[in-house]
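Dear Dr. H.,

I hope your travels went smoothly. While you were away I took the liberty of generating a structure for the chain from your last submission, since the lab meeting agenda had it listed for discussion. I wanted you to have the full record in hand beforehand rather than looking at slides cold. The sequence, exactly as received, is reproduced here:
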Amino acid sequence: MDLKISKYLLIENEIIDAIKRGELKPGDKVDSESVLKKKYGVSTITVRKAFTDLINNGYLYAVQGLGTFVTKKQMIRGLTSISFSDELEQQGYKIGMIIDSIEEIHNKEIAEKLKISEDEKIICIKRVRLANNEPIAYHTSYVDGSRINLEQAQSIKITRSLYKTFAKYNLSPIWVNENYSVKEVTDNSVLNQMKLKKGCSSFFVKRVAYGAMDEVIEYAETYFNKDWYSVTVNIKA
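The corresponding predicted structure, in token form, is as follows:
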């Protein structure tokens, strides 16, 4: 048996087991090369081989001059549901929400997106989406005030889901169109709520949700924390 292979696999497996047991949590620093060399009685090459494999497989990441850390588990969007909450729950996340504001506004540009006149009332709902108590998205949704009023919109505080609130008032979207880009977060409120540093970039998603008659139900803009979020799309020939 090749002892070097056995040793680096032992290091890898023990670190993976510690992550799965919760002894090592996302963001935790793992033992240094020198500590692991002494602990397992191996060479620098063996420890680096274990670290390289763990980094390549998404368990760890390295920061030059600081050390090696446990990665955060990303929310991988498979675009299998129009409900962000449903996709999170399907992946085993404990979901939560912080309501930032619910208000009635007038806005010409948003009115155009909702296909209503600029003098009509718009309900604006801003909230932070949590996954395992970590802020991963900041949603701003706009709805025609004639479809759902300010008092009805407050139901989101109970349902904890915008689309469950919509369903309560027979306003369920049938399909959505989304545009993805990368955008720098400049809004201080969003930065604070998402615990992001100034100048940080994020996935920025514009969504238009449509009803059964292709009427616009919602226009939304969302900042996703790029460290927590990725998108996987299956394409069939």
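Two observations you may find useful: The chain has a mean pLDDT of 86. The longest strand covers residues 95-105.

With kind regards,
E. W.
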